[in-house]
Write a structure and sequence with these properties.
Helices cover about 15% and strands about 40% of the residues. By secondary structure, it is of the alpha+beta class. The longest helix has 20 residues, at about 10-30. It is globular and about 70 Å long.
Length: about 200
């Protein structure tokens, strides 16, 4: 047996394949990690649905759930971020849509409109509304979403993931919310407060 192993491992191709498989296995274990999060106990807080970096804060016309102009906070997830997604506010899922789209780079502004994505709209017990989207990127080709219309959800709980580099957008009425983040900030899903209802 030692002779056979010595012969096998003298072959450069076998060594290269073994190393590559090992590296990919370690990366996948790292990528699919799901660390514990301490959820803020505030019914007025809008939590970040994802780990990543704030790349844009803007006003947009949202025609499906709000049907008016609202604020949008965009979060870019690199392949090194945790990709488990979390619920931003407690309430009832009142809106769910899956859009089959393109796979533009997730940091591209057009990704919010053109890429494959799910959109989840939640209404809390006070009638306040928040919508967030899971957006596939140029590498991510699989969105996992475990909620649908009618589901009761709790702020900070796990609801799915986007595999590999991707993006998450959060929509809310800007006039009702005091922002707690700015462009360039790093956020943690289920922990970072994006904004607070006033």
């Amino acid at each position: 047996m030692p002779i056979i192993l010595a012969i096998i491992f003298r072959q450069p191709v076998v060594i290269i394949i073994t190393v590559l498989v090992g590296v990919l296995s370690v990366f996948n274990l790292y990528f699919f990690r799901d660390p514990h999060r301490v959820i803020p106990d505030s019914p007025d807080a809008i939590l970040s649905p994802a780990d990543g970096k704030i790349i844009q804060i803007t006003e947009v016309e949202e025609s499906q759930f709000f049907k008016r102009k609202v604020s949008r906070v965009s979060i870019f997830l690199s392949i090194f971020n945790v990709h488990v997604n979390r619920i931003p506010i407690s309430g009832t899922v009142d809106f769910f849509r899956y859009y089959k789209g393109k796979f533009l780079p997730a940091f591209n502004n057009k990704a919010s409109l053109d890429n494959e994505q799910t959109a989840i709209g939640i209404i809390d017990s006070g009638g306040r509304k928040v919508m967030f989207t899971q957006i596939a990127g140029i590498i991510a080709r699989r969105i996992v979403c475990e909620v649908r219309e009618g589901h009761r959800v709790k702020a900070g709980e796990r609801m799915g993931m986007i595999r590999y580099g991707s993006r998450a957008d959060v929509y809310f009425p800007g006039e009702e919310v005091k922002l707690r983040v700015k462009v360039g900030d790093k956020v943690i899903g289920g922990e970072t407060v994006i904004g607070v209802f006033q």
